[in-house]
Amino acid sequence: MSADRDPRPLTGEPLALDLLNTRWNEEGVSRDLLDGTDGLAVWLAANGLAGEHPADADVLRHLRQAREALGAAVDGSPARGAALVDAVLAHGRIRARLTVDGAHEEPEFADASWAPAWLAARDYLDLLGRAPDRIRRCAHEACVLHFFDTSRNGTRRWCSMASCGNRAKASRHYARSKES
Q: Does residue 146 come out as left (phi exceeding 0), alpha (psi in the -120 to 50 range) or beta?
């Protein structure tokens, strides 16, 4: 897999949701970008983290743990998800500082291999603080992708209107024409 080619159908979502979107379905087959360190390198590069963090087995293991935690929090039991996300967050903290430019916060990690996973978990907390009702899973029954709804009225239903939205419209049209 080329480090400059991201094969996922939906990219550019906030970090936490982008991590969830490393799993997707393609023509009925489940795909996983984090099935190895090559895919990890693609994800790190896509999120501006490649220069800071190596695409090694430790980072990959921690990101997979964060992905499971975020998946449980977003799609599963809030109580179970909270405990799993907290377990990832336990590997870092925010250090507040005063610099010549003013107040500054920076993450700190005892083990730097936790940094990308921690940043994704922290991003989820930020999304919850901004608009928890806008964290969504695509409404298409065969889609597993997530997005942050930035539409003005908050009614986005599909990861992509071009793919899942059109498939749903086509299915409804086919069902109506079959009834006629």
A: beta
Confidence tier at 162 by pLDDT (50, 70, 90) = confident
Using CA atoms in the order 42, 46, 50, 54, what is the torsion angle rounded to 10 degrees? -40
C-alpha span between 61 and 98 (Å, rounded): 34
DSSP 145-163: -EEE--STTS----S-III
- Dihedral angle computed from the Cα positions of residues 72, 76, 79 and 84, in that order, rounded to the nearest 10 degrees: -10
- pLDDT tens string 100-128: 999 999 999 999 999 999 999 999 999 99
pLDDT, average across residues 50-65: 96
Q: Model confidence over 70-82: pLDDT tens digits?
A: 999 999 888 999 9
Q: Are 34 and 60 in contact (CB under 8 A)?
A: yes
DSSP three-state, residue 23: strand
- Pairwise CA distance, residues 37 & 92, whole Å: 23
Q: φ and ψ at 105, to 5 degrees?
A: -120, 135
